[in-house]
Amino acid sequence: NAQYKNFLDASGYAPRDPHNFLRHWPAGAPVPGSERQPVRWVALEDARAYAAWAGKRLPREWEWQYAAQGDDGRAYPWGDAWNDAAVPVPCLERDMREPDDVDAHPAGASPFGVLDLVGNLWQWTDEYHDDHTRGAVLRGGSLYRPQTSHWYFPQAWRNDQHGKLLLMAPSKDRSG
User: Fold this and answer.
1) Residues 43, 51: Cα–Cα separation, whole Å
2) Which residues of the chain have a pLDDT value below 50?
3) How many CB atoms lie within 10 A of CB 152?
C-alpha cells in the first residue's frame, strides 16, 4: 500500500475507469496500519502502470512459477508439504478481512527469498487475448475461503495451479 501510494503521488496516475479503484482506501490513502499490506482493488492496467513507474514489469506466468518453485520442482514456495505457518490464516467469514502484511510469513519464502507468493491475495501475471476475449492468468490464491459457494473462483495455492480470469473492464476486474 505504501509503495502504491508513493507511485500515485509521484506519477499523478489516475485510471481511465476509476470505479472500484483502491476501494479499500476510504480517504485516498492507505488506512493507518495497512501500509505493509499488499495493494488490492487494482486492475491489470493499474498494476502495469505501477510496475512501469518502478522501472519493472509484471512477471510472466512462468517467471512467477520459477520465483516460487526454484529449480527443484517443489509443490509450494517453501517445499513439498503444506505449512500453515507459511500463509495467512484463512478467512472463512462472509466478508473478507484485511490481508496480512507482505512480510508476515517468512516461513513461506521461496528458494530465492521471495515472500507472500501464496495464500494472501491473487497476483496478476500474463494476459491472453483473441478476437473475442481477454483473459489474465492469476497466481497464488487468496486467504478468502468461501464455505458454501461452489461457483467461486477456485484457489490455486500449489505452484502447478493457476486461475484464469476473463477480463471485462477495469472496474469489474478490480477486487479485494
Assistant:
1) 13
2) none
3) 12
Q: 109: which 3 cell numbers? A: 519464502
Scanning 55-127, the segments in alpha helix (DSSP H) are 61-69
d(CA 130, CA 16): 23
3-state secondary structure 15-47: CCCCCCCCCCCCCCCCCCCCCCCCCCCCCHHHH
Distance CA 4, CA 136 (A): 21
Helix axes 2-11 and 44-53, enclosed angle (nearest 10)? 80
Residue 85 near residue 118, CB atoms below 8 Å: no
| Residues in the chain, overall count | 176
* pTM score above 0.85: yes
pLDDT score at 93: 82
